[in-house]
Specification:
Layout: E1 5-10, H1 14-20, H2 25-45, E2 49-58, H3 66-89, E3 92-97, H4 105-117, E4 124-132, H5 134-144, H6 153-158, E5 170-173, E6 192-195, H7 205-216
Parallel strand pairs: 1-2, 1-5, 2-4, 3-4, 5-6
Helix pairs in contact: 1-2, 2-3, 3-4
Length: 224
């Protein structure tokens, strides 16, 4: 396998982890973000991987408790504020997939700032899926098409949030859930799926390395 990999993670189980430790739900998200730092560093250091996509918040997650949503958005903003220097040290480009009109303005502004300031980096990309849904992205892509433009696979792809990113090679979903849940429907058409029993706060870079090692040995035929 010669092409660089695009890995995606659906980090499920944060709230269950918090409950099992008799903590508030957002403490599970806090632990997940701490864990997330080691995983992003591993992806940066492994020469097989050049893109990591992580689902931070879905278009459906707005149904959750208001307090939990507020705390999660604050945790994400704190993470971006603290990690800015790391993106530059690692020459990692930050991108965002999803909407920005519904998240807090301060978070949206910081997200844009960091994305703009790291746009020149090309070797490694961290793509945060925030207020993201696969159906929503496809609808927005169709709406962005110029009037009269022909509808085909290429023109829809051209108007996705980040058409320059390669399709996702392997998607890892933690906590034992076995659903695709509206996650990057277009870019995951030929993705390999891994369903891991561990809750995300307990998921380690060694676990990630094992799944990437296993994936690297697969023969992908893409229908051929």
């Amino acid at each position: 396998m010669s092409e660089l990999l695009h890995i995606a993670i659906i980090p499920d189980g944060n709230r269950r982890w918090a409950k099992s430790h008799l903590l508030a739900p957002w403490e599970g998200h806090r632990k997940a973000i701490e864990n997330f730092r080691s995983l992003t560093q591993w992806c940066h250091d492994d020469p097989r991987v050049n893109t990591l996509t992580v689902w931070c918040f879905s278009t459906e997650n707005w149904k959750r408790d208001k307090k939990e949503i507020e705390m999660l958005m604050k945790l994400l903003e704190d993470y971006l504020e603290k990690e800015q220097h790391v993106f530059h040290e690692n020459k990692t480009r930050l991108t965002h997939s999803g909407r920005t009109d519904r998240i807090p303005a301060s978070l949206a502004g910081l997200l844009k700032k960091v994305c703009d300031e790291t746009a020149q980096y090309s070797e490694n990309t961290l793509n945060l899926a925030l207020d993201y849904g696969g159906k929503d992205e496809i609808v927005r892509a169709i709406e962005k098409r110029p009037t009269g433009e022909q509808v085909n696979e290429q023109t829809i792809r051209d108007h996705l949030d980040h058409p320059e990113l390669t399709d996702i090679d392997v998607i890892i979903r933690t906590s034992g859930e076995q659903r695709t849940s509206n996650f990057f429907l277009w870019q995951s058409a030929y993705s390999e799926w891994v369903f891991c029993e561990k809750l995300f706060p307990d998921f380690t870079s060694d676990d990630l390395a094992g799944y990437v090692d296993a994936f690297s040995k697969r023969n992908r035929r893409f229908g051929g």
